[in-house]
What does this fold into?
Amino acid sequence: MRAIHVSVWLLSIFLLFTGASGGWSADARAQVTLSKDNARDGNEAKPKNELCLGCHGYEGFGVPTGETGERAMRKLYVSPELFKQSVHAKRACVDCHWDILQIPHERGVQRERVNCIDCHLSTLEAQNKNGTKEFKRVDIVVQNIASYTSSVHAEPRDDDLNRPNAYCSDCHNAHTFAPLGTKPRLDFRLSIPDVCGKCHADIKEAYLTSVHGQEVKQEGNPNAAVCVDCHTTHDIESPEADNVKLSITANCGNCHGNQLKTYMGTYHGQVTTLGYAYTAKCFDCHGHHDIARVADDTSRVHQNNRLETCQKCHADATKGFITFHPHGNSHDFDRYPYMWIASKFMIALLAGVFAFFWTHSALWFYREYRDRKEGKNAPHVDTEKLGHEGKRYIRRWPLGWRVAHLLLALAVMTLVLTGTSALFAESAWAQTVMQTLGGPRVAAILHRIAALTFIILFFGHLLFMAYHIIKSGDKWKWFGPNSLIPNFDDLRQASAMFRWFFGNGPRPVFDRWAYWEKFDYWAPFWGMAIIGVSGAMLWFPAATASVLPGWVFNVATIIHGEEAFLAAVFLFSVHFFNCHFRPDKLPQDIVMFTGAMPLEEYKHEHTLEYKRLLENGELDKYLVDAPSKPMTLGSQLLGATLILIGLTLLVLVLLGFWENVITA
It folds into this structure.
């Protein structure tokens, strides 16, 4: 073995002094001797690369290491053909190896490591000053350098603080690194697992067993994922960092776009989109480097292994979790029929509700505006003849109902803000709101507090009504004028309302409750049934999955989100119009805060009840003094604040719907 080393060493010395193409004279050697300062500055003529390749282009060229050549050869061979195809083909060798001052090289000199960073930055700076057409390339290289210098690879090694964990040349061969689109560059891509595996041997071994590794090594598939596709090329950081987890998840979508899109529709994906990394990501379910196909019984998401995978995060997960569809698609009836049906039902419901009530509001505004312009809506009540001089208001809402309404409004607005921030997570405003709230965990707590407030108010109301009915005994009339239960009169009044809209009849008169008020009353019952039940199922997944299949979560997510959207848009458009924005109410109606309504307005809005109370002599029981100025001012400020918040939420929800549904 020593004889071989000695032979190669003698051959290398021969080539150094003679050159592979015929030898150099002393004069020739003198012509390629540079001063150190001028070599770095490039102020002297540079030797042509052919001179360097005269030795380094000789296959097998190298020098022995160790005092007597007993250690392995240091390979110094550079393939002339591959170098000519490389990105550095136009550069002179001494541009990088600037401390080579003499050919043949002086012996016993410690060479400096080639500094790729300084070289690239200085070269690109010169290109920029010269006004070349390589600005895009300049930006890319500068970005790569900046990314590398802030990566874990640029940090010093634990065993040698003078060396980084990985330098440019540890990953790139500067002599053979070819441009994009060339065969050598493609070969380099397929070799990346081997390059990374020089330092990460265990990870490489796991990767080679994966579906990605098998595609690369066995099939030579250039489209299969290699290390840099997931971890990026230069700005590599610890995979434990949140931003890296988010980046890797997004990178999965570069190849698996449809799967990423459907994942983002789940709560896991919504939290990820908002910029938080604590929910399950692709690699939490599918694995990191040893990813197997779903049908492979070694896969973590194989039917036999899926429950165990879910239990890593959901310790109390039951078998129902197995049939949850993390990539369910509501547009694919064949694979996900229940999701398709739920989605189409909700779309039809939304379209029907908004088509009717927005048309209703638009026609109402037009007709009421016309009537006010013509002076038709100016009722007058002569309180002096009634014997109640000075009392020109009637009590419409007792204090308890007003407090309940305020709490309900605050709860609903909190639910809308926290819920739609997750539902429309891709919107820029959603991420800002979530950061302001303190993150999805805090938002989830606020959402549940608001939900509990809503539930307590809802069932508290039911208990109160049950007590009131029992106490009233036979006096209670389910379909009387004071009842909120819909009846045929409501249908006749709605029909008459539309005739009035089109000028084909007078404005109908109403009793204590108009048909649109009854709709507003019963809407929370529908909302509680749909939003409340689906929300509870998602809130307690283990309990739900213990009795129901996992696909119920997919359906519940669709229904919960779509019904919440319906409720938010209806409340802040239709309900606000009915109460505040129609011409008779503008700029706002504060009766829900003062509890009292002017008699003139009461007679106009609830004509039948007014006449009945007047005829029965019961009107005086409900007449009250006008609200005090502080009460009126406070109610106006509170009402305006709530209306402003509601309209802001409406704009945000509609923006989210436009960005995430219409233009997606």
In short: Residues 337-373 form the longest helix (37 residues). The longest strand covers residues 71-75. Strands lie at 62-65, 71-75, 393-395, 596-598, 623-624. The chain is about 60% helix and 5% strand.
